[in-house]
Amino acid sequence: MSFPDPIQVFKTEAAELLEQIETGLLDLTYDLTNKDQIDAVFRGLHTLKGSGAMFGFDALAAFTHHCETAFDRVRKGEVTATEELISVVLEAKDHMRALVENPNAEHDAVSTRLLADLHRAVEALDKAGAAPAKASGPKETLWRIRFGLPRNAMANGTNPLGLLDELRDLGPCKIRADLSDIPALDALTPSDLYISWHVEVTTAQPKSMIEDVFIFVMDEMQIEITAIDAGKAAAPAPVPAPQKAAAPAAAAPVVEAPKPVVQETASVPAVRDTSAAAASATDPKQNRAAESVRVPAERLDELMDRVGELVIAQSRLRQLAGRNADIQLRAVSEDIERLSGELRDTMMVLRMVPVATLFGRFRRLVHDLARETGKVIELITEGETTEVDKTVIERLADPLVHLVRNSVDHGLETPEMRRAAGKQEAGKVILSARQASGEVIITIKDDGRGIDRDRVRAKAESSGLIQPNAALTDQEIFQLIFQPGFSTAQTVTNLSGRGVGMDVVKRTIDALRGTIEVASFPGEGSEISLRIPLTLAIIEGLLVRVGGGRYVIPLSAVEECLELSLEEDLRSRGRSFISLRDSLVPFIRLRDLFHTGTKPDPYQKVVVISTGSERVGLVVDQIIGDHQTVIKSMSKLHHDVATFSGATILGDGSVALILDVVHLVAAGQQQEAQMRIAG
């Protein structure tokens, strides 16, 4: 059995702490006096510093200490938070990430520059004047702490003297050691810990700060934290804290010799709260419900592959059972089909991630873009609970970055221009997500100047992308902005203007089998919608036959199926339209598209598919039925074949190609447009 690498575990935990710190800092920009957010940022920095030192990331711990000290002054009311301080700490947070990911690299120059910026920001706060005196701050409270670590704590790398040092940092502290559990010398194991401690600390900090001292050992230790009457806070005589620079052994003088037996240790509970401990002890299910397991993403991918192979094997078993008259075999096949379906659904849920994890990244991006461009920007997110396959989330990050940067740089006007146009000074960028059938629709909307249609057309004509005076719809013109190297920017900035960003967006969305829709109104803003499949692993498909080959149509795109007789097929030659509830829908004969060379069946079927508001019919020879489709990527030799988005393995071992719905709908609409032009 392999155990997780502790350094890798720390890096994962540090990444989460850094995200929490960034979130707290960005929340502070809306309310610089929010004490809860100030405390949250401080606790995050404090925990990161302590855990970094514990795992040997000394450079990280030393650098983080300076940021922690600055926020400690804000937390104590000595200075007030400013946007400049938050911006400096945000940049420092990025440097902390670099110190975590690559601790052995050369970071001294960056560290020195950032610490100088931090020092200047704090000096500016001092010159601006301090906050109200400490006397108006929270009242000091006497806390009584009793704790004992597991026997193997020191063998696992925990230094109890470090915990005592952190408690002394909170305020005047009195420490007693309980030596009653130390065994006789012949029964003593040198690496085991037999001592527990009784601590009394007087501090203005809340209970959560005391708990943070033990955050990495809390689950395995015994601890009780009790608040004593505030009037008694002055009663205990504090023990002077030693110098922090002293060696660990120097901490020994602060430990007073206790009495041989301390009866109070018997009442120490096993968790933070006594009532919670009792409830947990009587309800083991509650303990299990609160547990969570961290699983590497590659293991989920591997498990998904196994589930896919199981679905293929189940499909083969169902085929064999259908040809066999054995009732028991059919019953087993049905059970396996039910279980594999449930396992597939469970696996899909495990892979689903809320888009909030994606949208959260853009708060920092918009904050930095606002400072760089001098624009006032308000980021609004909607539908953050919408869930998408984790693979889709990972691949959507870069396209959305380009779209948001373009909205800020090209779309939103400066505050002066917005006021002159009668708009609010703050421009809005709205990120929204919603689920529609088997797709998720992600929209990036702004209330800026909009896309200049005439300018896009002129640029496209001068670049040779379209013929002069060509008849194009607004949607076709707007799609030109996704062409490689296309840009209407008069000047190239570090944000945009080179014509490569939107090309990346288009290629990525096409690779995800998605579509892009653009809408824009002069003076009102633009809206770009991305329609993306919910998953790239297993889908429900409709298995059809065209000639001698079998193909899969994603079931989420299928609207309905119609019958097309041979006579109707002959009558429709030359126009390829069917009338569907008072509307004409173009259709494509897949037999002709694939050059099967076979005669059509007497009763062909038309499968009507759609993407958004666009529809097209696909003429097939036979509809076989629904099929659980495990998506396999096309080989490098065939990945450019536009008509197909992948392949799957059927129950008999043969391969069926998965039709690219987006491409076929676009082809149908192009066919319709050509026929209308021809009259």
Explain this structure.
- By secondary structure, the chain is of the alpha+beta class.
- The protein has five domains: 6-136, Up-down Bundle (Four Helix Bundle (Hemerythrin (Met), subunit A)); 141-274, Alpha-Beta Plaits (2-Layer Sandwich), CATH 3.30.70; 298-353, Orthogonal Bundle (Helix Hairpins), CATH 1.10.287; 355-533, Heat Shock Protein 90 (2-Layer Sandwich); 538-678, SH3 Domains (SH3 type barrels).
- Helix content is 42%, strand content 21%.
- The chain has a five-stranded mixed sheet with strand order 6-8-9-11-10.
- Strand 15 and strand 16 (583-589) form a beta hairpin.
- Helix 3 (58-75) runs antiparallel to helix 4 (83-101).
- The chain is flat and about 100 Å long.
- It starts with 5 loop residues before the first helix and ends with a helix.
What's the layout of helices and strands?
Layout: H1 6-28, H2 35-54, H3 58-75, H4 83-101, H5 108-128, E1 141-148, H6 160-170, E2 173-178, E3 196-203, H7 207-213, E4 222-228, H8 274-282, H9 284-290, H10 297-323, H11 327-351, E5 352-354, H12 356-359, H13 361-373, E6 377-382, E7 387-389, H14 390-411, H15 415-420, E8 427-436, E9 439-446, H16 453-462, H17 474-478, H18 501-511, E10 515-521, E11 525-533, E12 538-546, E13 549-554, E14 558-565, H19 566-571, E15 577-580, E16 583-589, H20 590-593, E17 603-611, E18 614-620, E19 622-630, E20 644-649, E21 655-659, H21 661-678
Parallel strand pairs: 6-8, 13-21, 16-18
Antiparallel strand pairs: 1-3, 1-4, 2-3, 5-7, 8-9, 9-11, 10-11, 12-13, 12-19, 14-17, 15-16, 17-18, 20-21
Helix pairs in contact: 1-2, 1-4, 2-3, 3-4, 3-5, 4-5, 8-9, 10-11, 13-14, 14-18
